[in-house]
Specification:
Elements: E1 6-13, E2 20-24, E3 36-41, E4 44-58, E5 68-71, H1 74-100, E6 107-113, E7 119-125, H2 135-144, E8 149-154, H3 157-164, H4 176-179, H5 189-194, H6 201-204, E9 236-237, E10 242-243
Parallel strand pairs: 7-8
Antiparallel strand pairs: 1-2, 1-4, 3-4, 3-5, 6-7, 9-10
């Protein structure tokens, strides 16, 4: 970009259904949708895909973005595939330690290694009431990854269901959270009551064991009492999409 006060902003996603993060692509002329790029994040250097082009945006101290480092090379893509195999090995190590230490209720969901292998992010689930010390897991992973910086991050059941995917409780072949939802909103039983939905667990509970995300949809579509309608169109509004 010739104008130093402007940034060419692009949206980058690091997983198929992950959040979109904005970066400054001033130093990558011709960058376009679908490009694989390398950027620095809080999780270390990562490989991501350009999924949105915002274009030129005024830059300031309050409104600034990290630079895209480069377009991914064949070496970067090859390294990512190698790391995916290594991640599976580390998952096996973590599961073994959990079994040996009898950490009941702890499940390893995923392990991600940064592109430069300097950082390792472990996502795990645990719904027990007592605090649990996973330092032994962290120690073994640090040793196995040749002293990478290891971060253990606990996630909830909704995130677990999103990562693993599968059929939705409603019968759809793909769960909404795995298909298009990037954020989870607060859901309450009141939302089901307002829509006249049966409160039996099978009707309002998702595969994650929590209230279904679709309950957040506004009940404004419901017809008034005694109204006669030939056709009822239900509009469902999610944080990032409209579905009819």
């Amino acid at each position: 970009m010739e104008n130093p006060n402007q940034a060419y902003v692009v949206g980058i996603r690091f997983s198929k259904i992950g959040k979109i993060y904005n970066f400054n692509a001033n130093n990558i002329p011709g960058i376009t949708m679908g490009d694989q790029v390398v950027v620095e994040t809080s999780r270390g250097w990562q490989l991501g895909e350009v999924v949105h082009i915002m274009g030129a945006v005024a830059s300031s101290e309050e409104n600034s973005w990290k630079l895209v480092d480069r377009l991914a090379t064949t070496e970067d893509l090859s390294q990512r595939r190698i790391l995916e195999e290594k991640e599976q090995e580390l998952i096996s190590i973590a599961k073994r330690v959990i079994s040996e230490q009898h950490f009941e209720g702890v499940k390893i969901v995923s392990i991600e290694i940064s592109l430069d292998s300097s950082k390792l992010t472990v996502l795990y689930s645990y719904e027990g009431e007592n605090k649990i010390d996973l330092r032994s897991v962290k120690y073994e992973l640090t040793r196995a990854s040749k002293n990478a910086q290891v971060e253990l991050r606990q996630i909830g059941p909704r995130d677990v269901a999103k990562i693993f995917g599968g059929m939705g409780a409603c019968g759809l072949p793909t769960r909404c959270c795995s298909k298009f939802l990037t954020d989870f909103s607060s859901i309450s039983i009141r939302m089901a009551k307002e829509q006249g939905i049966s409160l039996t667990p099978a009707e309002i509970t998702g595969m994650c064991g929590r209230l279904r995300c679709c309950l957040i949809n506004s009940p404004s579509w419901m017809p008034p009492p005694h109204a006669s309608m030939v056709e009822l169109v239900l509009d469902l509004r999610f944080p990032s999409n409209w579905w009819r």
